[in-house]
Amino acid sequence: MAGLALPVTKELFYSILIMLSFGPKKCYLQRSEEFGSLNEVVLWKRGDHGVSDYRIPLITSLPDGSLIALAEARKHSSSDSGPKFLAMRQSRDQGVTWTNTTFIEDDQEATDGLNLGSIVVDEITKSVFVMYSFCIHKCKYATTYVIRSDDNGQSWTMPKNISQQLGGLQFAPGPGYGIQVECSSPKGYQVEYSSPKCYQVECSSPKGYQVEYSSYKGYQVEYSSPKGYQKALDPWKGRLIICGHSIGKTEGLYCVASDDHGNSWHRTAELPRTNQFDPNECQMIEQSDGVVLLSARNQQHEECRCRMMAKSYDGCETFAHSDIYYDHTLIDPTVAASLLNWKYTVYFSNPASRTLRVNMTVRVSGDMGETWKGLRPIWQGPSGYSCLSGIPTSQGNDSYIGLAFEKGLISPYESITFVKLRV
């Protein structure tokens, strides 16, 4: 008797992949009803503008409230090396429509060209910085460049080589966005919110912890950045921080910082690779108490196939090994993921699988990334790198975030898609 043949639809195929990824005890993700999807826009797809592939999405909000999306436009192949454009699109209506693609950088026909990269906004000067590497794969000494826009992405400076400032570090920033620290205490203390625009440290408040120094009591800090909190006191007032990884002899996770609004940069925290301990591509946020929380790609699967986490209590000067842990809830197939602190809620995005780049998912945390209470499956099929952003809006009490991610039917790298979510 012949066996029964069932038609294999795309939905069935991806469901089987997810079941195999999670194992028999947890073969699906439970959908959270806390998110509402509003619209989806394909920002770039394979072949657009004569470009072979688009990869490594970055997205953030700008000082004027618009959104900016960036990607590597890989000219001739999907290879990480090879020549590229730096592609940009912007939205001025909260992600509903987008400008035409502009190529803001061109490495000509470099055999190992530019690689994104990280974007960071200085909320004091209103400048926007994009940091990227050049020839990170094939050169003995790679180069790190920064470009700056002072008009919300309408024009950009010529690339500035900052490799010497970083001591020759083979630095691959991000991918994702940097932060500008804003809390008023170097170690950070729980705060009691006093208005939508600012918060006040309360020594006697049952909602917070006692502040070590009496001069902090009642100090108000203006809340101005969707990415973090700008420090009000030295030594890290307005510090810009970008973290990434290095290759070669300095392999590991590294951070760089600027304390003069992007005029100069220097190395700060580092976590060098040792055997199975191999932190890689990363994204960080500043928690509401001033602690920097970092989520890193766990390249060698130390302890688990999940995210490696680290905390810094000194503005990313250091990461103590005692403050490194593994978040087993955040299963991960070894990929770049995103982390966002938006309106005192933390969001995380990645392909939620232990082994396959499938099932793009957004998770939500109500305690600054310590635990995860809800999730929203975005796309069950092939999914790759992702980047989250808050979406500024004046529409009453509604709150929105945006997700740019690599999405495809056969491969994750067929398109970069933007999804707007009500949260």
Automatic annotation (TrEMBL):
Major subcellular site: membrane
Ranges for domain Sialidase: 58-182, 237-386
A GO molecular function for this record? exo-alpha-sialidase activity
Which Gene3D superfamilies does UniProt cross-reference here?
2.120.10.10
> Is Glycoprotein tagged as a keyword?
yes
One cellular component term from this protein's GO annotations in UniProt: lysosomal lumen
| Topology within the bilayer | Peripheral membrane protein
Give the keywords, sorted.
Cell membrane, Cytoplasmic vesicle, Glycoprotein, Hydrolase, Lipid metabolism, Lysosome, Membrane, Phosphoprotein, Repeat, Signal
Where is this gene product found? Cell membrane; Cytoplasmic vesicle; Lysosome lumen; Lysosome membrane
Q: Does the keyword Isomerase apply?
A: no
Coiled-coil stretches are none
One of the GO biological process terms:
ganglioside catabolic process
Q: What does this protein do?
A: Catalyzes the removal of sialic acid (N-acetylneuraminic acid) moieties from glycoproteins and glycolipids. To be active, it is strictly dependent on its presence in the multienzyme complex. Appears to have a preference for alpha 2-3 and alpha 2-6 sialyl linkage.
Assembly state and interactors?
Answer: Interacts with cathepsin A (protective protein), beta-galactosidase and N-acetylgalactosamine-6-sulfate sulfatase in a multienzyme complex.
Which family is this sequence assigned to? Answer: Belongs to the glycosyl hydrolase 33 family.
| Name recorded for this polypeptide | Sialidase-1
